[in-house]
Amino acid sequence: MDYLQRAAGLVRYDTIIIAFVNDLYIPIFKMWYRLFRRYGLTNYLIFATDQKSYDYLDANNINACYLPFNKTEFKRGELWVMRVEVVHTLIKAGINVIHTDIDAFWLKNAMSVLQESNNDLVISRDNGIPVEAGKAWGFTMCCGFYLMRSNARTCRFVDRYLARTRIVMDDQRALNYMILEAGDKWRELGNAGASIHVKQYDLNVSTLSYDFVARGGVRPDAYVFHPWLAAPGDIYKKVLLAIKLLEDFPSARAGLWHSKAWVYLAPGYWTKKFKAVAKRLLCIGRDLTRVA
Fold first, then answer.
1. pTM greater than 0.85
2. How far is the C-alpha of 83 from the C-alpha of 143, rounded, in Å?
3. The CATH number of the domain where 169 resides is what?
């Protein structure tokens, strides 16, 4: 069964929630899923990009689809292109898509609020890439959490969006560049974010405020917390950082001990710690030798 058939069988309210995961990020996914499953949502599909992550999802009865991604031939951006290809397919099939990164932790049922908007694209905001959009608008659109409705306008738009993503090899850069280059003005809505009608694509877009999707700091009423987990290549540090940040949100604290236990019981964690200590001791030894 291909992923379109799988998704079509899971759709509720014309909408599917999708996320992508690989074996490295399974520990982060476990934290995400413990929060997400509290809302009883069944219209979701997790795309596993390797066999190990798919086996985990399947063994735990999590709605999953195996969409292999050859990491040994990885080129920067290919995963983002694949992500847009999936969104393109679903939108063309008449399915509304909520895309969420697995480190965009659901503190409340975000789907119920997203569905209240009639805009074609409802997206979280950031202050990162591309810098050109950040300078022009004071924010950037973040592809880590968004709703795209399926209609005639978005069916036309996703064709051009996919084509642009294949050129720049980055879905977030592609989206921001397209809206920026169209030249229309955003209308600030105070605590409700901002909105824009992009005439070139006849597309209605709105951004979610930081009170809805918190990026940094504690937002007590946030529906989603999407922190910056800056620890390249070290999944243990990422998990511990996520735990530390999530502990600031009372609704997210339950169950975090599972993730703490995973880190502190992992042989790989202590191997890294031992190597770091050994390296430090070696440096100290060299310094003492030079002094002597």
1. yes
2. 10
3. 3.90.550.10
